[in-house]
Design a protein that fits this description.
- It contains 3 helices and no strands.
- The chain is mostly helical.
Amino acid sequence: VAGEHGGTPLSQVAINWAIAKGTIPIPGARNIRQVKQNLSTLDWSLTAEEERMLDDASAKVTGFVTPNFFPRKDVNTGLAMYDS
């Protein structure tokens, strides 16, 4: 997708994809160059086909959070911990 838009940075593709999904992305930036890159995201939009391609690719990514990551009992007190 980035190649179809003149080799735009992947961060711009991600920001545009978030916008296409109806969200309001809040990208970070460590310097002025990154701020300018983030702002230039607004100069173009994803096509419906590009959005579909990104949707399909993201569907293949597994989650990074392991279910039941937290212990069942508090390590200090031994008391049971429950989901709220």
